[in-house]
């Protein structure tokens, strides 16, 4: 019986055995490390397969190198074509250079420069990047068209048996590590190639281990395929976890996963961001969002997994540096929960400090947005957090007790994009300050109560906690008379206890904010 006559799962397992001999010409096995979960709550014993420490900082080198090592001499001479948004491209580039194969890799025009540079670094003169379309799907279509027109071999990122077999060497290393067996593994899914290969291999040796596929909300193509009984194409996908943002699960991976996965579940972008922070704080590992999906699921089920030995895979660390800020913003404070509220005040001197003093003590203000746009009512927006959920649960009662009208805000566009309205025609004698203060609980309120008190009315506030030791806020005050304003500005110390600097903004900034000269 030829290999092609074997059932698909047996072909895959045989392919993994043969891939052992090929892939280690291009890279070495990655470590399996223990991760200590933060906090004192019950939880599992977690082991992490560090694919972020591979030659291309992601597991994709395994499949690309295995597939390209099998090309015939004629196929190598003709070159290959691939499509990728990042990690697979680097794996193809690595193999292309070491095997002296010309590779044309189609990438979306939106691909960050850092990922393009990484492909060129690994592939050198053997790789040509073709920027095609604005999404992976458009780049994929363009690459397949080129392969069809030229007769060139297309190296698929996941829907190829030999690519899947190469990815399966990661699972083999876990078996050979001596740290198993494990009770449960949480394994991220994009197109499904890694999940299919790893689950097929692990079920062979550890049949009692539960294997849970994890997808991000808004890109659950495998979950949709399992529900439909066949791969289906999602109308759109969320791309926060860009490494797994696949609209349609692969046909071959689906055929394996439907028999080897115990279940598939989803996690939110916020849960992924929390997992990225835990990986950084525990292992000093900066995972890309898709690389942290497995840990996000573990954290989600932490209490239920207490006493278990759990395996996860950090599949990659090719995160665009600029995205780290978005991740931190999405995640906020890892150990805290938060709530965003819009609260009604009367536009009178002291009303803002009254609210802060009466209702927000003990809470951490992580975001504060306000601009005067009504002569009677003020609607400042606060995002507050607390280590203890009960502290936030009692906030509505405190607001009601003091007669404040409020409304919750969740994912509001104006809040997210910091669209802070300010009507300059409602101001009399404004003064704006740039405040840099030392970040600690209550520091901002201490400054306002000690330095401002009832001397001025707020007309503007723009502050967001960044995680730095220094907090930065742009604050506007309004006064009835010029002399009152000038006296306040002159009396404001430029630095002092609890704050590093407080200085008036330049006149040009004041003009841009208020429209007044």
From TrEMBL:
Lineage: Bacteria, Pseudomonadati, Verrucomicrobiota, Opitutia, Opitutales
Catalytic reaction equation(s): L-threonine = 2-oxobutanoate + NH4(+)
An annotated GO BP: L-threonine catabolic process
Keyword Hydrolase: no
Stated name of the protein: threonine ammonia-lyase
Record GO terms (molecular function): L-serine ammonia-lyase activity; threonine deaminase activity
Catalytic activity, EC: 4.3.1.19
Keywords of this entry: Amino-acid biosynthesis, Branched-chain amino acid biosynthesis, Isoleucine biosynthesis, Lyase, Pyridoxal phosphate
Species of the source: Synoicihabitans lomoniglobus
Enzyme class of the recorded protein, top EC level: lyase
Pathway field: Amino-acid biosynthesis; L-isoleucine biosynthesis; 2-oxobutanoate from L-threonine: step 1/1
Domain ACT-like: 431-506
Cofactor(s) required, per the database record: pyridoxal 5'-phosphate
């Amino acid at each position: 019986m030829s290999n092609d006559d074997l059932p698909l799962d047996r072909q895959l397992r045989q392919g993994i055995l043969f891939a052992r001999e090929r892939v280690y010409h291009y890279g070495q096995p990655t470590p399996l490390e223990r991760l200590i979960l933060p906090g004192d709550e019950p939880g599992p014993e977690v082991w992490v397969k560090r694919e972020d420490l591979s030659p291309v900082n992601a597991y994709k080198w395994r499949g690309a190198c295995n597939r390209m090592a099998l090309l015939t001499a004629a196929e190598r001479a003709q070159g290959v074509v691939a499509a990728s948004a990042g990690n697979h491209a680097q794996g193809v580039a690595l193999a292309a250079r070491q095997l002296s194969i010309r590779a044309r890799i189609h990438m979306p025009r939106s691909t960050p420069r850092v990922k393009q540079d990484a492909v060129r670094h690994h592939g050198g003169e053997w790789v040509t990047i073709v920027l095609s379309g604005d999404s992976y799907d458009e780049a994929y279509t363009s690459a397949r068209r080129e392969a069809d027109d030229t007769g060139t071999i297309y190296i698929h990122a996941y829907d190829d048996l030999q690519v899947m077999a190469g990815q399966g060497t990661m699972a083999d290393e876990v078996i050979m590590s001596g740290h198993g067996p494990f009770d449960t593994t949480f394994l991220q899914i994009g197109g499904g190639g890694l999940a299919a290969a790893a689950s097929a291999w692990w079920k062979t040796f550890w049949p009692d281990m539960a294997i849970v596929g994890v997808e991000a909300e808004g890109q659950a193509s495998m979950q949709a395929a399992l529900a439909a009984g066949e791969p289906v194409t999602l109308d759109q996908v969320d791309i926060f976890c860009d490494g797994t943002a696949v609209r349609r699960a692969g046909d071959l991976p689906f055929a394996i996963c439907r028999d080897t996965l115990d279940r598939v579940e989803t996690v939110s972008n916020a849960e992924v961001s929390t997992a990225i922070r835990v990986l950084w704080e525990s292992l000093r590992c900066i995972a890309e969002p898709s690389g942290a999906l497995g840990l996000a699921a573990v954290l989600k089920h932490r209490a239920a997994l207490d006493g278990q030995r759990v395996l996860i895979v950090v599949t990659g660390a090719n995160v665009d540096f600029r995205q780290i800020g978005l991740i931190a913003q999405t995640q906020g404070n890892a150990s805290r929960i938060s709530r965003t509220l819009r609260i009604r005040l009367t536009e009178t001197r002291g009303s803002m400090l009254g609210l802060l003093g009466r209702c927000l003590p003990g809470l951490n203000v992580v975001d504060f947005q306000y601009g005067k746009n009504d002569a009677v009512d003020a609607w400042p927006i606060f995002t507050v957090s607390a280590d203890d959920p009960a502290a936030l649960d009692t906030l509505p009662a405190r607001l009601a007790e003091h007669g404040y009208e409020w409304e919750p805000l969740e994912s509001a566009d104006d809040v997210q994009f910091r669209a802070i309205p300010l009507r300059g025609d409602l101001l009399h004698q404004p003064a704006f300050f740039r405040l840099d203060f030392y970040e600690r609980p209550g520091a901002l309120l201490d400054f306002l109560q000690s330095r401002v008190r009832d001397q001025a009315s707020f007309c503007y506030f723009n502050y967001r906690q960044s995680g730095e030791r220094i907090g930065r806020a742009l604050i506007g005050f309004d006064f009835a008379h010029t002399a009152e304003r000038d006296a306040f500005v002159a009396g404001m110390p430029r630095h002092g206890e609890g704050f590093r600097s407080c200085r008036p903004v330049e006149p040009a900034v004041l003009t841009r904010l208020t429209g007044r000269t």
